[in-house]
Specification:
This is Cytochrome P450. The chain contains 18 helices and ten strands. The protein is an alpha+beta fold and about 400 residues long. It has a single domain (about 10-395), classed as Cytochrome p450 (Orthogonal Bundle). The strands form three sheets. A five-stranded mixed beta sheet has the order 1-2-8-5-3. It has a three-stranded antiparallel beta sheet with strand order 4-10-9. Strand 1 (about 20-25) and strand 2 form a beta hairpin. Helix 10 (about 160-170) runs antiparallel to helix 11. The two termini are about 40 Å apart. The mean pLDDT is about 90.
Amino acid sequence: MDPAGGCPHADNARLLARGAVAPVVLPGDVAGMAVLGHDALKEFLAHPDVAKGAQHFNALRDGEIPDGWPLKTFATVQGMTTADDADHRRLRSLVSKAFTTRRVEELRPRIETVTAELLDGLDEAARAGDGVADLRTHFALPLPMGVICELLGVDAEYQDRLHHLSNQVVSTSIGPAEAMAANRELVEVLAAVAVSRTREPGDDLTSALIAAREEGGDRLSQHELIGTLLLMIIAGHETTLNLITNAVRALCAHRDQLELVQSGKAAWPDVVEETLRWDSPVSFFPFRYPTRDLTLDGTVIPKGTPVLAGYSAAGRDTSAHGPDADRFDITRSGARHLSLGHGPHYCLGSPLARMEATIALEQLFTRFPELDLAVTEAELPRHASFVGNSVQKLPVRVRG
């Protein structure tokens, strides 16, 4: 796996031509596997003999993984994504109350208001920049970051730093010292948030998690609290940020598809779902571990191997999506994808991410129907990671 990331689709196609499961070399020459085919990934994500707990990671358990390994946080953070069975159900039940259909729908007016305000800011930035502004900086980032921080009760003063640190955590190309420093500071910031909410509880998820821990005694440890906040911050804004960014890029590159939705021949949720399939906001997500030697699509994955879930590859798997799987088509019939997960670890925040992206895209292209990229796709700098799948900047010209 290239630690510098880059566009994954050409490499994914080459790997898929060989099979649905591939051996990979992770940073630091750590042996792993990646599941790339749609059907194989769907089976793997829900398989009863596949675990998330780090105790099942052979190389980590045997002391072969150094502290500064850039992917170590994905394996060792204490929270839903590294818990199994009863622990997973306990942690998930505490967080799920914030993402019920009713609570998410109650956020709609606030999201619509914030979106409109951010579009004003995008317009001002473009006027100050000869008609060009960075859509990620002024729109795609502050929307989901603001919403998840509001849900968690995180003060605005922490938001920029949290985004920078979460970027460091998901990077696969930084050095050991930098990785350890970013993780340490991120834990410190989130601990400060927890202290603030302990002193001044509010109507937010952090206060609710703290109350549950205090009332239930051992229901949520301090490490689990911080780990849950870390996961919520990263997953709650990075995924939606990439989703909005990738959708805008796709629509600008496929003006015929944009015209379909602008003319009412397709709907904005169709754009969101096709973007999730065609250019998944997460490319390869770490880790899952077979608890026994597992044969998947004819390939044996040895017990205790760290396995990447290849969402970007599965989204363009021709065996699942047809020979035109690499074509962006919002009218695609029977479209299905795994980009928000599958099985017991299916993304709890998926309704919120879908709502945010739908509102963002509809308001953006209603306000600026001629919006287009200000540079070519090839000039857009990619994420330095094979985990996140998007670009670092998105300069757009808001008016034709």
